[in-house]
Structure formats: structure tokens, C-alpha cells
Amino acid sequence: MLKEMGRTSQAVLVILYVFTTVKAFEMEIIPANRIVKQIGETLRLTCNTTGCASPSFSWRTQMDNPLGGTVNNYRTYSTLTMNPVSIVNSHDYLCTVFCGEKEKKEKSVKVELYSFPRDPVIEISPSLVAAEPVTVICKIPDVYPSHYLEVLLKKEEHVLHEENFYEDDSTNAENKTVRYSFNPTAEDIGKEITCVAKLPIPNMDFEPKERVTSEKLTANFGPQNTVITASPGNWPMEGDTLNLTCVTESNPPAQTVWRKHLADESIQLLTTNNVLSIPDAHFTDSGLYICEVTNLVTNKTEKATVDIVIQGAPDITELSIEPSTTVQEGENVSIRCSAEGNPSPRIILRRKPDGADLGPYSEGRILLPSVTFLNGGDYECVAENKFGKSRSEITLNVEYGPKNTMISVIPATAVKEGETVIMKCTSSGNPAPVISWKKKKTTGEPEKIYTDATLTIQNIKSQDLGLYECEAYNQFGKEEKDVKLLVQERLEKLDQMIPLIIAFSSVTAVAVPAVAILIYVSRKAKINGSYSLVKALRLKV
Q1: Where mainly found (predicted)?
Q2: Which architecture does CATH list for 121-308?
Q3: In angstroms, rounded to a whole number, what is the distance separating the alpha carbons of residues 515 and 519?
Q4: pTM of the full predicted structure?
Q5: pLDDT for 332-368, tens place per residue?
């Protein structure tokens, strides 16, 4: 009884241990709680779980608005990616996780957006002349939410004008403009006009919340401070839409021309807009871009440059065989593979199917001097970088004359009359050789007797013996092999031989005793001094 109670206690302890070591089903959203993001950036929300082997995920906004992003589910977590994040993503996002049919957990996170990407731009027009009015224009690009925007126009430390946009109900990032006109004095020339733009959104942590631009109060000026901004950046991925924006300070506004440096050092004219847009960017769009701005009043020109590098998995642009994919044995062959990608792909050329690595080659090239039939086959080019790989194949066909010609004879080269002989000729070559058979006449001249790989001779006779020759040929040459066929004559039939055997046996049976008697009598006669056969026989009798 005590033993049974002990065993029960141990089992309970084991069960308790298992339950305490198994992790409970939990979930979290990363980042958690509240998210502040600038419009145009990338936002990724991750819903992570523990304690559930095969969870299922569901994303939605609390107002059931479109997600405005893409969802990717993995084993124990799910990601919602918004690239780029826009106004439509300003929601509370709810992630629901189901573990089995009964367990369910939910968490939400609030996404708050703003846009305050660049410093204000000041324009002062028209040309400054004492005692005539001048208009100061301050442009604040891509502001959201604009009802928090506050703008100050200052001359040195003196506030000229203050404006806010509290009643603005814009629902997207917009350019906001503040204008102020005044009559400058001669003493004002050279003083700085400053535009201070503030976006003090309560309880939202981002920097900067204030942007400042100053411009000296002068006559017509510019262009100056020309800059290029690239979206989504200077290193976009292949397939992205690339936007290059050229911003300059000029009074009056400058004219813009975009150009690009080509590989041959020439310059390509692209557009005259201040924004250069390249949809579905390709590797060939990489390069140095030039924004040239000109103020026609001041006859002043300024340039800004930006180096754009398109990233992405490689594409094989060439896989070729020179001089041709079909060559003759002995020719020099070059196999070339090239690919484009960034980072620059690693190129490997190798032959299939044995997988023998014939690279990598930095230039993606294999040289095969005096090619042989062994070099023929399929070749594979693989281009690879950290973003992926590309693969392509090509076949090298090497033509050559017959080689390794062999003859096999079944059952053997020496056979008996009446048997069947099969002679098979094999040979390699490209194109496949034609096989023909010849037999040497008694005169020594070969006579063509058959065209096929296998020569069959049934009920063979003695006249079939002799030298047989196999010839393998194609347009690149021929090769010959020969074999000598020996035919053994068959013995006479058994029923014809029996009488001869009996007669021979009878003669032998009589002759042997007679010879023995003659020898005996002869010896006796010699002893008696008589060589008379009759007497010798009488004495014997």
C-alpha cells in the first residue's frame, strides 16, 4: 500500500513539473503602445507569440479601415509593413492571435503620423529698391498636421509677422505658405529675414519640432543653397519609384534642368522639372545625377549632384558561347557570362551535371583552348549577391569523328559449323557514326556486306570464315576495326562411323595374337638353328 502511494506521489510531482515548465500562451506587439512616424518612412509592426506552436494571426484597424500595408505571417509571428507610411495609416491597429480553437489574445497599438521633413524656403520679391514694398514669402514643405503649424517672420530679432493654421483642416501633407509685405529702408539691406516654422504637436515625441531658414534682404539673388533630396534614398531597391527633388533659393525662382553622367562621360538631358521621377528603377538608372538651376535675372547658375546606386538581386544579362554553341573538336571556345546587380554579384560558371566548379571567374569567362568532345555538355551560370541569385544554362555541342570503335563477338571468334554468330560494332562520335561491315575476299579486297551496328550470321559454314571489318564514319572522319572469324569443321555423323569402328576392332583382335605367335616361333627357330617356318610350327604343335 505504501509503495503504491509513493508511486502516485511521484506521478503527481512529474505532472506538476511538466505544467510548470510549459510556457503559457502570450503575445506582444513590437513596437508597443504608441508609435510616432513621419510620413514617407517605413513602418513595420510585429505581432509576436510565445507558448503556441501554430498560432494564426489577424490584423485590422479598430475602425475597420483598410490596413494600408502588407501582412506576412511566419511560424510564431506576423508583420504588418507600411512602406511608405501615409495618412491612411493613422489608426489604432489591432492584432488578434488564435492558438487552437479556444485560446485567443488581442493587443492594439496606436500609430500617429506627422510630416515636417525640411526647412522652410524663403523668397523675397520683387527686386529690392528703397521705399518700394518688398514681399517676403516663406514656404513650409509637406506639413502635417498643419493645424498645429506656427510661423514667425523675423527681421533680425524683430518679429515682422506671426501666423498660425489652427483652423486648417487639411487631411494630407501639404506645402504651406506665409506672405508678408513691408517697405524696407536702406538700412535693412543686408539684414537677415528669418522664417521660423514650428510644429508643436502635444504629447508627440519627434525631432525637430522647429525648423528655421534665414535669407539676407538683398536685391535679386540666387540660385543658392541648391540641394537634391532622394526618395526613398540614395540606395533604392530595383523596382522602386525613385524621386529626385532639386530645391534651390533664388529670386526670382530659378529654372531647373536635370542631367545624368553616362558611362562614356557624356551628359544626358532628362527633364526641366524640379522633380525627376524614375518609376520602376533598374540597375542602369544608377549613376551621377546633376541638377542645374539658373536665375535668368542675375544670370547665375548653380549645380548640385547626387550619386544614385540601385540595389537588388542580380540579373544575368549575357550567357554566350563563341564562336558558336556548335563547334568542331580542336577549335578554341570561350564561354562568357555577365550579370548586373548591386552589390556586384559573384559569378560562377560550372559544367553540369557533375557540378565541377569551373569558377568563380571575376570576369565570368571560361576559355577552352583546342576543345575536345569531353568539353561538350550543359554549362550553368549562377550570379549571386546578398539579395538573391539568378541562374541560366547553355549547351556546348562539340562535333567530332568516330572514336573508341570496338567489336564484340558472341559466342566467340572460333565457332563450329551450324552455329549462329552475332558481331556487334560500337563507336562514339558526334553526329552519331554510321556503321558498316566488310569482309575480305580471297583476293584480299574488302567487300561491303552489311550496314548496321549488329551483324548476325546464322547456320555458319566454313566459307564464312575470314577477316571481317567494321567501319564507323561521319562527316568528320572514320575509324576501322577488324576481327578474324574461325570456323571448325564438324565430325562425321555417328551412324556412319560405327561400321568403321567395328571393322577396325575386329582386325585388331586377330592381328595382335598372330603377330605375337610369329615373334615366339621366330625366337625358337633361332635357338634350334633352323629358320623354317613350317618346322617351327610343327615343333610348336
Answers
A1: membrane
A2: Sandwich (2.60)
A3: 6
A4: 0.44
A5: 999 999 998 888 899 988 888 665 555 555 567 888 8
